[in-house]
Amino acid sequence: MTYPLIVVPFVVITLIVTLATARRPRFRERMASAALTALVLVGLTLVFDNLMIAVDLFSYPQEHLSGLKLGLAPIEDFAYPLCAAFLVPSLFTLLSPRHAPKDTA
């Protein structure tokens, strides 16, 4: 069960960074957009991972998986698009200034 353990740090970091933006403006809107993005990415992952596994482009050693699958794709594969959908906008928010600089002209 190696692959589920590999995704844990990504999920934890995503949760911490996302929650760190909770007090920033437009949190609800960001989360709604991230959820929609996650839905699209998970859908694409579902289709293309299943296709790539079906045509034997790659495979996973079963002893390293949790055993849960969506089609042929192991559930662990879906953690990365979920994390990306929430982590990227959260990092952008944290790295952006809280207030726009005032125009001094």
TrEMBL record:
The chain crosses the membrane at residues 6-22, 34-58, 78-95. This is Lycopene cyclase domain-containing protein. Pathway: Carotenoid biosynthesis. It comes from Microbacterium algihabitans. It comes from the Bacteria. It is a multi-pass membrane protein. Its main location: membrane. The keyword Isomerase applies. Residues 10-94 form the Lycopene cyclase domain. Keywords: Carotenoid biosynthesis, Isomerase, Membrane, Transmembrane, Transmembrane helix. It is found in: Membrane. Pfam families: Lycopene_cyc (PF18916). InterPro entries: Lycopene_cyclase_dom (IPR017825).
